[in-house]
Amino acid sequence: MAKDTTDRRKARVRRTLRARAYGKPRLSVFRSSKQIYAQIIDDANGVTLAAASSIEKAQREGLKTGADVEAAKAIGKLIAERAVAAGVTEVVFDRGSYMYHGRVKALADGAREGGLQF
């Protein structure tokens, strides 16, 4: 039963994003119990423009763990840096089925500090 509600919530968020995206790429977030991942996706062309995660070697060495707010903020700054290098400055934020709280919020704040607008 929990899977159904998660799928419905994710679909509701994506439907809202599509209505408000106006052709902008989306910043998609996935978090597990040990890591956090972010991607900038161009849905019109079906390509990933930039990606960052706490599992990358450079991030693993610099972070205590991949599952805390510090790691999420660092990944947010890194994804923003890579997106700006790829020519993307405006995105829509896709939190998936996660609440905008804790690590997801920290990633968004880090991305904003890095130069992304959403």
TrEMBL record:
<keyword id="KW-0694">RNA-binding</keyword>
<protein>
    <recommendedName>
        <fullName>Large ribosomal subunit protein uL18</fullName>
    </recommendedName>
</protein>
<keyword id="KW-0699">rRNA-binding</keyword>
<comment type="subunit">
    <text>Part of the 50S ribosomal subunit; part of the 5S rRNA/L5/L18/L25 subcomplex. Contacts the 5S and 23S rRNAs.</text>
</comment>
<dbReference type="InterPro" id="IPR005484">
    <property type="entry name" value="Ribosomal_uL18_bac/plant/anim"/>
</dbReference>
<dbReference type="Pfam" id="PF00861">
    <property type="entry name" value="Ribosomal_L18p"/>
</dbReference>
<comment type="similarity">
    <text>Belongs to the universal ribosomal protein uL18 family.</text>
</comment>
<comment type="function">
    <text>This is one of the proteins that bind and probably mediate the attachment of the 5S RNA into the large ribosomal subunit, where it forms part of the central protuberance.</text>
</comment>
<dbReference type="GO" id="GO:0022625">
    <property type="term" value="C:cytosolic large ribosomal subunit"/>
</dbReference>
<dbReference type="InterPro" id="IPR004389">
    <property type="entry name" value="Ribosomal_uL18_bac-type"/>
</dbReference>
<dbReference type="GO" id="GO:0006412">
    <property type="term" value="P:translation"/>
</dbReference>
<dbReference type="GO" id="GO:0008097">
    <property type="term" value="F:5S rRNA binding"/>
</dbReference>
<dbReference type="GO" id="GO:0003735">
    <property type="term" value="F:structural constituent of ribosome"/>
</dbReference>
<keyword id="KW-0689">Ribosomal protein</keyword>
<keyword id="KW-0687">Ribonucleoprotein</keyword>
<dbReference type="InterPro" id="IPR057268">
    <property type="entry name" value="Ribosomal_L18"/>
</dbReference>
